[in-house]
Amino acid sequence: MLSKKMVIVVVGIMLLFFNMTILSVTSKRGVSAPSGMEKVIIPIVAPFQKAVAHSIRFVKGVWEDYFALVNVSKENRELKIALNLSNEKKNRYREMELFNSRLREFLKFKNQTNSDVLAAEVISKDSSAWFKTIMIDKGLLDGVEKGLPVVVPEGIAGQVIDVADRYAKVLLIIDRNSAVDGLVQRTRARGVIKGESENTCLFQYALRKEDVKARDIIVSSGLDGVYPKGLLLGEVSEVVRRNSGIFQEVKVTPFVDFEKLEEVLVVLAPNREPM
Fold first, then answer.
1. What gap in Å lies between CA 193 and CA 173, rounded to an integer?
2. What per-residue confidence (pLDDT) applies to 116?
3. Where are the beta strands (DSSP E) in the chain?
């Protein structure tokens, strides 16, 4: 037994075949008055013809829209890839531009100093809250030795405290274990720069009677046997003179931005003369 759906499909196919046959016969006869049989058949077949025509147009539209969407999706992916490549290239050019700018400052600083210096790249930073150190990609094989000062064009960064063949560890001046003999550039008052935090140092042992004011510049004195004389250390941000005691409390903001250190210079033969 044929199911109801199968019967409908078979009848539809028969009507479609019948419709195509009538159309074929009619087209062969050309333009002429319809016969009696055609007058009966045409009103019956016409709705099926209309439905078939609509179905064909619908399927054709869906098919064309599908391929149009496929092409649009493909073009969209290609455009995204091209945009990503363009942004990546732009970013590389920007990084190269920034590197060249830093390099020009390093070369300018190197030409101003009387000491031999070695450029090095910062490859890691100590994440500990207790120690402020960095690792650089130069070591014993490059002439780096323990105790050598490390600088950048903005001023003193730190001192080499450990060396391997290809690497070296640098203690930054913001570390609490660091100490740099310094001078107030304006009045020549002496003291010692000690690390306090990530962006602050203390200018300790400055006598209470000495003239030290906010915005004074602190430079290295050259008397500690490590750092050449006259290198920038920082700017005085706060001065406290208490009623008792022989020293005043001086806070200093370093000129070096230690969060943005990427390259440094190791002073291979520190010169004690003014730079």
1. 8
2. 83
3. 117-125, 133-136, 149-152, 155-163, 168-172, 179-184, 190-195, 201-204, 217-220, 232-240, 249-254, 263-267
Distance CA 192, CA 131 (A): 19
Number of domains comprising the chain? 1
114 by DSSP, 3-state: which? coil
Instruction: Enumerate the H helices of 140-204 as residue ranges.
Output: none
Q: With respect to residue 96, please indicate whether it lies within any of the assigned structural domains.
A: no
Is position 258 within any domain?
yes
The CATH number covering residue 203 comes to 2.40.10.340
Q: Is pLDDT at 41 greater than 70 in this prediction?
A: no
Domain containing 218 equals 117-267
pTM as predicted = 0.62
Q: Is 122 within a domain?
A: yes
Which amino acid makes up residue 6? M
